[in-house]
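As the work plan foresaw, the team has encoded backbone shapes as discrete tokens. One protein thus recorded appears below exactly as we store it.

:::
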Amino acid sequence: MATPFLYYPLGNSRHLDPLFEAIGDAQFVLLGEASHGTHEYYTWRTAITKRLIEEKNFRFIGAEGDWPDCYKIHRFIKGYENSGTTIRDVLMGFRRWPTWMWANWEIAALAEWLQGYNQLKPEKNKIGFYGLDVYSLWESLNTIVDYLEQHDGVAIEAARKAFRCFERYYEKPQEYARATVLVSDNCRDEVVNMLRRLREKSELFENDAEAEFNMEQNALVAVNAEKYYRAMIRGGANSWNVRDQHMVETLDRLTKRHDNAKSVVWEHNTHVGDARYTDMKRDGMFNVGQLVRENYGRNNTFIVGFGSYSGSVIAGRSWNAPMQIMNVPEARKNSWETKLHKISPEDKLILSSDLEEDPETQKWIDHRAIGVVYHPEFEAYGNYVPSLIPERYDAFIFIDRTTALHPLHLRPDLKETPGLYPWNF
């Protein structure tokens, strides 16, 4: 089938050259994914990220993951003392569902590459890996209490008070959220005071500036997580907005800490693809891609969406359910994915600047989105976000048939994506 717009076949990382030319000098490159359990999305994002680091001097990765867990990866790749003997040991410590998002062979291989890269660099030029998300309320509180018990007898009281306030809810945020609906009592003042006390006690960290930033970020997570869970139980767009606002605030803090350096963001398409060009806008929602474009300028932000026509994926049938390899059916008729499949059943790179001559791409079109909870048999009735593709993204990577991610306890298939990704196990 003929196509009125240009696309670039994808076979290996050198085929990404047109993408890197389009990225130019952008400070922020946001890399999406249409699911949280697809092997090819991780490997292509890795290929792009490695080239951004090597060729364009990008300094850190911000991921849709919990701050405390991702900070363990950060410490490992920087070679800090007591940061773990192997990356497998580090990733096996990831406990919060969905563990497969980060405890997988694809991330393990990337982390080992980053560790090797960092060994050759001075401290100021080493690459960092950070979690941007807001979910880790109890993990962040535990991290703060454990640190302050060893370093300060005064600031610890504010942290313990915040911890005790949440303790009665048995690490179940839904229980806390429901309780705040029934009564006005909540833990907001406790976590805000804890953050204030940590910012006053900078002398605690005078020999370890990274520890200071880590503790303050954990306190900020606690503040915004408390806000998020209260908003979540009330419904509406506010909880989504609290979460994405926190992720951008964290990205801002990291950018300042790294002297306004360039950064890569790894998140789902629904977070990085500009919400103004989806039906999210109608519901009063914004997202990371929109806020980064607004805060730093569209010319300084480059967004890459990802998608596929069919294949397999790792997901669960409900929250906290066992992970499964699930079939991803052929995309819905008249969707963006079906359009790309009909053009040709090959993997391809599309630049939004090349879509101007195709009137069909200037219209709203259904675009698939798969979450950590997935029901393939019902996909025809959901899982699609109406989007204006050339505005939502600056580029799009299409994998015609994808395969499931490899959770850490499974061995990787060395035959997949030959020549693109060097497995280290």
About this structure: Residues 203-207, 411-425 have pLDDT under 50 and may be disordered. The CA atoms of residues 155 and 197 lie 6 Å apart.
